[in-house]
Amino acid sequence: IIERDETPMEKEIAGLHRMEFRFSDIFYFCRKGFEAIVEDEVTQRFSSEELVSWNLLTRTNVNFHYVSLRLTVVWVIGVIVRYCFLLPLRFTLAAIGITSMIVGTTVVGQLPNGRENKPQKGGICVANHTSPIDAIILTNDGCYAMVGQVHGGLMGVIQRATVKACPHVWFERSEIKDRHLVTKR
């Protein structure tokens, strides 16, 4: 077998060998992995180029080099408009929106519930383009049989579970056979 010198990494690993394993033993390998990712040959090939002149896009004036009075005036006006006009306007609009939402939902919550429009037993209630959240709200007062499209994932699990409680009709829109079965039911 060819004899070769030990690499620095092999020497460091040899120093880690002990009788019992400690969780901190993996830190060396994690550090080496991170270093390999950071110092890979691909990302070292590319670096951002330093701009020769200031172009109004930097957030601070650390790299500010005086170019012209006109450019400096435009930058100062931009800072004033951005932080003295637009920022307070955004905070004001956000505060107005949140306040109106709180007041509006409080007022709606105080309105009496009209039971006259609630679906009666044996009746039919049609609501096109309902979302799963709409279906949850509709079935909050009682259990209604629904007709709708089959979903996958978590919504599909919920649909299959609700079929056990009430005879819902779920169909796949793309299947013509499913459409015909739904019309017969």
Task: List the keywords.
185 residues, mainly alpha, two-stranded parallel ribbon, 6 helices, 2 strands, flat, acyltransferase, membrane, transmembrane helix
Model description:
- The chain is mainly alpha-helical and 185 residues long.
- Among the domains are: 8-45; 115-184, no CATH class.
- Helix content is 49%, strand content 3%.
- It has six helices and two strands, in the order H-H-H-H-E-H-E-H.
- It has helices at residues 8-16, 26-38, 69-110, 132-138, 153-163, 176-184, and strands spanning 147-149, 169-171.
- Strands 1-2 form a two-stranded parallel sheet.
- Helix 5 links the parallel strand 1 and strand 2.
- The relative contact order is 0.04.
- The mean pLDDT is 76.
Summary of the model, kept short:
By secondary structure, this protein is mostly helical. Among the domains are: 8-45; 115-184, no CATH class. The chain contains six helices and two strands.
